[in-house]
Design brief:
The protein is 31% helix and 27% strand. The protein is an alpha+beta fold.
Amino acid sequence: MEITYEWRGVFDNAELNALHAEAFNHRPLEEDWKTQVERHSLGWVCARDGGELVGFVNVPWDGGIHAFLLDTIVSAKAGRQGIGTRLVEVAVDKARGTDCEWLHVDFDDHLRGFYFEACGFTPTNAGLIKLA
């Protein structure tokens, strides 16, 4: 398996919807990812094994100095090979090349080791309000 990583990589909505559904255990949706990331994201990273999309992370931003990691996903068959860590490394590297000063992430508790240990994020205080 030779994985390639591409900042602002080309993808189609169907393949990303399928990967997202697998990663977050829901039925495939028909989200227009391309329009969403082109309008709201500093960038995104696609990981491919040959032609197959096996990983993705989105880096939306506020238009100023704050960027965010969302939807860090790796297919089950490609998991546990460092692909998620490399996706985040590429995203961090590319975000550093912009005017952004901060990269934020939030996650479920079981991912603490991944983000804090493997990816180098620092724990901070944050707040959250559930809207729906």
